[in-house]
Amino acid sequence: MSDYALRLDGVRVQRGSFELQVDLELPEGYIMGLVGPNGAGKTTTIRTILGMLTPAAGTVEVLGQRLPAPAGLREQIGVVLDQASLVEQWRLTQVEQALAPFYQAWDRNGYADLLKRFGLSPSARVGELSRGMSMKLQVAIALSHGARLLVLDEPTSGLDPVARDELTGILGEFLVSERHSVLFSTHITSDLERVADQITFLHEGRVWFSGATDDLRDAYRLVRTGPDGIDPAIIECHGLRRSPTTAEALVPSAEVGLLGSGAVVERPSLDQIVVHLASKEVVA
């Protein structure tokens, strides 16, 4: 039995002029954040994992099974999308009636309990739900058929801070079982600061980093100096921003010693890393 919830090895996917090349490993029992700017390949990666796209090369393993896998694998994967693909006129009881026959492990009592816990009325219609409530419904569905892997594609986009906090709390409870794992694609990297053990950073269809979140944050430092204090010819820097009075860039931690004594050096947030790694030099 594999110890990995996900393994993508040498995967290459071609979609028109865009090519994705990705390698990543998500150990069981962990949350991996999938981050990167628009067009980086996050959604293409998720669709490949879900079997919606077939790689031109490489292998994809989900919960120890190589794709294409037996149909029963879908019961162990819960998917939460930015927009739920459910009939808006359905009441939440009808959602269960429509979906339960597709899952041998569907738990009717569990679904009812989750609706109650999330404050969802069984008689409410899908189209009447707010974005936050719609996300909770998708999570309730995923947890009602015994999913071991949750795949979330921009689940917190458009949610208020309270709803986002509730969702991340639910994910934490899901991870109580060591056999449960989460792949969490999002633009809101602050949501990952608290919950993601692993980060895969995509840019222009390539993996720039994949590993422990703390390792990524330890690998770089955010540096602020005078306008001429950062020389790209001497120091590797990312997202260099210059003004008449200051310069700011993301610098590998190992190269901080090459800076002058007047530099202000900080441990960057995940958001600052993503922004700077994906940015070009800016001169104000």
From TrEMBL:
* Name the record gives this protein: ABC-2 type transport system ATP-binding protein
Q: Which Gene3D superfamilies match?
A: P-loop containing nucleotide triphosphate hydrolases
Q: Give a yes or no for keyword Transport in this entry.
A: yes
Q: Does the keyword ATP-binding apply?
A: yes
Q: Which InterPro entries match?
A: AAA+_ATPase, ABC_transporter-like_ATP-bd, ABC_Transporter_VariousFunc, P-loop_NTPase
Give the keywords, sorted: ATP-binding, Nucleotide-binding, Transport
Q: What top-level branch of life does the organism fall under?
A: Bacteria
Q: Which organism is it from?
A: Propionicimonas paludicola
Q: Name one GO molecular function term.
A: ATP binding
Q: Where is the ABC transporter domain?
A: 6-229
